[in-house]
Write a structure and sequence with these properties.
Helix content: 40-55%
Number of strands: 20
Strand order of the largest sheet: 7-6-5-11-10-9-8
Number of helices: 18
Oligomer: single chain
Structural class: alpha+beta
């Protein structure tokens, strides 16, 4: 039985009294500007601004006084709110992830933010709880207790469980040389584009002409004095340098201090981040596979990165996928080694992949070229009608070789295999992905054919699972091969469908099944 003290409501760290007011001030900045502008029209903008400042600080202080939490033998409960009081709870057996993060202010004060997740990504009422402002040591202990079922136990029993020494096995650690892979992820290009868009909008809203800004005017004059070719080359060089700088800086901010370890209690632990640190713990019993991704530029540099296919982690790209990172962009050989260590076998990485045949390769070309041929034809027609210069004709036909090259690369990427433990699929060109999904994690199989796939005699097999993207496809294989892969991956799953007494007249049994019987 837990004691009354262990089951009582507890407050966040009192040091959050220094953090909450700052957070509320940042949130209230638009309102404070509005108060200053409104008050200035009456000559008392300063008083209005100070009043708003005081209210924001008071709201931050009250936020600490009105927030409390407790851990019972069955639930984690969070109570907060002043005007609208809320009580939220998550059952301990529903806890899937516990993320521990700390921004710069938290780290200065020795605090962390603990997010208790249930694996839901729709933001529902039971999607999880956030305890913003726990002592760093207490947060680490709480994370281990929630993930390993010791939360809510009597203190003596929990102490006995923690008495055994914990020895970690380090699987990967960030090497400074890996920062060179940052520019090949194009994250700097996105950052630079956002900054340029923000600056342009700010100048436009302020009615400022960029030519009135001295450095910009001088740069424009310098480019104007160059010839067109030299000006374009200078712009490209400056853009490449800027993208490289922003990409490297973003890599350092996101992954500095990265470390992947395996703990004896059956978890993988990932720590990363320079200014804002993040610690993610993944239970190996919820790990259903690993995915190795090789974006086009990163593949050219012989690099790759790894992500976990696990239940309870948000899927998707970009920021939402951050919790599943097992290895940041790094050498391909390191990515393969880490994937093998995480899976405890190298077979899914070393097994030969079955090619998808000439019909699948032809579909890569027809899909790529079929989409750009009308655009190229329209551009050529306009060039002839409007009497464009010769270089415009070259630009008009440029999409054709680019599309053909991408189609060839996509055709080379296609492949699949079934090993003793996993279904392996490889697809993509702009981002080539090798997904290794545990056969034990497959909960269903879909066989689908589009109109054009029926004409080509191909189907797409999709393995469904509760982890990661929740569906992993084997694209454009023959019906017989799709049935073979499905039966090898989950023996007996298609047995009821294979018991059809008679196939349609003139249609092979495998094709009939792929069209009708195996739909969900």
């Amino acid at each position: 039985m837990t004691t009354a003290a262990e089951d009582s409501w507890r407050r966040l760290s009192a040091r959050m009294l220094l953090v909450h007011p700052v957070q509320e001030l940042i949130r209230a900045l638009p309102w404070l500007f509005g108060l200053l502008i409104a008050g200035s029209s009456r000559g008392n903008g300063g008083e209005w601004g100070l009043a708003g400042l005081g209210l924001a600080v008071l709201a931050g202080i009250m936020r600490w006084f009105t927030t409390s939490y407790r851990i019972t033998p069955e639930q984690v409960q969070l109570r907060d709110g002043l005007v609208r009081r809320r009580l939220r709870a998550v059952a301990l057996d529903r806890v899937r992830t516990v993320d521990v993060t700390a921004n710069l202010m938290h780290r200065v004060l020795g605090l962390t933010r603990v997010t208790v997740g249930t694996g839901r990504s729709d933001g529902g009422a039971d999607a999880g709880l956030r305890l913003d402002g726990l002592d760093a040591a207490a947060a680490s202990t709480l994370r281990d207790e929630l993930l390993h079922g010791r939360a809510g136990r009597p203190a003596a029993e929990a102490a006995d469980a923690d008495a055994a020494p914990v020895a970690e096995q380090e699987l990967a650690r960030l090497q400074p040389a890996w920062i060179a892979y940052g520019p090949f992820t194009l994250s700097g290009l996105v950052t630079l584009g956002l900054l340029a868009s923000f600056a342009a909008n700010a100048l436009n809203d302020a009615n400022v002409d960029p030519r009135d800004i001295g450095p910009l005017r001088d740069a424009g004059d310098t480019l104007g004095s160059l010839g067109p070719a030299a000006a374009i080359a200078a712009i490209v060089v400056v853009a490449v340098l800027a993208v490289t700088l922003f990409s490297a800086a973003g890599y350092v901010l996101a992954f500095w201090g990265f470390r992947l370890t395996r703990r004896p209690e059956g978890t993988l632990h990932v720590v990363r981040g320079l200014i804002t640190t993040r610690a993610v713990t993944i239970e190996e019993r919820r790990l259903l596979g690993v995915e190795i991704a090789e974006p086009l530029l990163l593949r050219g540099a012989r690099g790759a990165h790894c992500a976990a296919i696990a239940t309870g982690l948000r899927a998707g790209r970009g920021r939402g996928r951050g919790g599943s990172v097992l290895l940041p962009p790094a050498p391909r050989s390191v990515a393969r080694r880490v994937a093998a260590d995480v899976l405890r076998t190298a077979q899914p990485l070393e097994c030969p992949l079955t090619p998808h045949g000439p019909r699948a390769r032809r579909r890569r070309y027809t899909r790529a070229l079929g989409a750009c041929v009308p655009v190229v034809a329209a551009a050529l027609a306009l060039a002839a009608i409007l009497d464009w210069p010769a270089w415009a004709w070259l630009l008009a036909v440029l999409p054709l070789p680019v599309a053909a090259a991408l189609a060839a690369d996509r055709a080379r990427s296609l492949g699949h295999a079934v090993t003793a433990t996993a279904l392996v699929t490889r697809t993509g060109s702009v981002v080539r992905r090798r997904s290794m999904l545990s056969r034990n994690g497959i909960i269903g199989v879909n066989l689908r054919r589009s109109f054009f796939q029926r004409r080509a005699g191909l189907v797409t097999l999709t393995a469904t699972t509760a982890a990661g993207e929740q569906h992993y496809a084997v694209l454009d294989v023959t019906p017989d091969e799709a049935l073979r892969v499905a039966e090898a991956s989950v023996p007996g799953l298609l047995a009821p469908f294979l018991a059809e007494p008679e196939p349609r007249s003139g249609v092979p049994l495998g094709v009939a099944l792929a069209d009708d019987a195996t739909r969900e």
